[in-house]
Design goal:
The protein has five helices and no strands. The protein has one domain. 43% of the residues lie in helices and 0% in strands. It is mainly alpha-helical and 107 residues long. The chain binds zinc ion.
Length: 107
């Protein structure tokens, strides 16, 4: 029984307990979101990005509001993806209503 690559082995997701980071392959999300949310990401993102997709790429797209352009991903699925990204700390929780925080701190 080898102990090498233990961390990498975690990324098959089946052990479920590992912390998701931006460097995780997209597949790590598969065990945390529904297939209806995951499958569109898995089929579209490698094609869009032309490389191996990481969870960080998904977070980045969510921050840029680009997930809505992915086929078969509706607001509800995007909300599901957003939630796991928030839970893992990759993005911060709900956007402030426009024009509140920045302006209130001005004086
Ligand atoms: Zn992982």
């Amino acid at each position: 029984m080898s102990e090498t690559n233990d961390e990498l082995r975690d990324h098959d997701g089946r052990r479920g307990g590992h912390l998701i980071t931006a460097d995780c392959p997209l597949d790590c999300l598969a065990f945390h979101i529904s297939a209806k949310a995951f499958n569109p990401l898995a089929s579209e993102l490698p094609w869009l990005l032309k490389r191996r997709v990481t969870v960080g790429d998904v977070a980045d797209m969510q921050l840029r509001r680009q997930l809505r352009h992915i086929r078969h991903l509706g607001p509800r699925r995007i909300g599901e993806i957003e939630l796991i990204l928030i839970l893992t700390g990759l993005i911060s929780a709900p956007r402030d209503p426009p024009g509140t925080a920045a302006e209130a701190s001005r004086s």
